[in-house]
Amino acid sequence: MISHNRPTLGTAEKEAALRVLDSGWVAQGREVEAFESEVCKYLGLDERCAVALSSGTAALFMALWVLGAKGKRVAIPVYSCAALRNAVVMAGAQPVAIDVEADSPNIDLNALPSTGVDLIVAAHMFGFPTRWPREFNSIPVIEDCAQAFGARIDGIPVGANGTAAIFSFYATKMLTSGGQGGMLVAREKSIIDAVRDYRQFDSRQDRVPRFNLQMTDLQAAVGRAQLTRIDEFISRRKEIQNRYLAAGIPLWLSDTAEGLESNHYRAIVEFSHAHAAIEQLERDGVHAIVPIHDWELIDDAEKFQRAAALCRRTISLPTYPLLNSAEVLRVIQAASKSISTGKSRQL
Question: CATH: 1.10.287.70, 3.40.640.10, 2.60.40.730, 3.90.550.10. Which one for 11-227?
Answer without folding.
Answer: 3.40.640.10
